[in-house]
Amino acid sequence: MYEEQKIEAKQELIAVMQEENTLLDVILEQQSVLHDCVAKKDWAHLEDAMNNLQALSDKFVELEDARTALSGDASLASDADCAPVLSEVRGKLQKSKIENHALNEYIKTTRKFLQGVFDSVVPQRRNTLYSRTGEIVRPELSGVTLDRVF
Predict the structure, then answer these.
(1) Alpha-carbon Rg of the chain, whole angstroms?
(2) How many CB atoms lie within 10 A of CB 45?
(3) Rounded Cα distance, 95 and 31, in Å
(4) Strand partners for 1
């Protein structure tokens, strides 16, 4: 009786990990779409891609919670039935992490470049100005008119 429950729990655990594996394929595909939207500056589709990715991430967290509850303290890496699926899930998680890092670096570099351009084209006051009453006066941003669409 106890063995049957153990086998059933193990099968359920493997099913959850396979579902995570399938979901990670979709997440990786969505990350690629997100990266393309950023690279092409397609802001309309970017928001949709981000919302889709957030929904997928929420679903993955639910599956991960279920997997954690099912596995308990058991070592999945040493289990012959679970190890291949676990290895695949970990590999896809690593790939997802690398994709996120690459996108973050691209955004950081682009932001730094654009900030440098704006700072040289539209220099802003760096000093803090105070009014007679001692309140901080925020200088208004100067307008910039471009004769070219990017």
Answers:
(1) 25
(2) 13
(3) 10
(4) none
Dig out the tokens for 18 from the structure. 């396979």
From residue 57, alpha-carbon distances to 6, 41, 44, 131 in Å are 29, 23, 21, 48
pLDDT in tens, 69-102: 888 766 766 677 788 888 899 999 999 999 989 9
> How many CA atoms lie less than 13 Å away from 117 in the CB half-sphere?
8
Say what the pTM is: 0.70
The candidate with the shortest Cα–Cα distance to 35, out of 98, 102, 93, is 102
Tell me what pLDDT residue 32 has. Answer: 92
At residue 106, φ and ψ (nearest 5 deg) are -60, -45
Q: How many Å apart are CA 117 and CA 53, to the nearest integer?
A: 31
DSSP per-residue string spanning 85-140: HHHHHHHHHHHHHHHHHHHHHHHHHHHHHHHHHHHHHS----S-EE-TTSPEEPPP
Q: Do you know the residue count of the chain?
A: 150
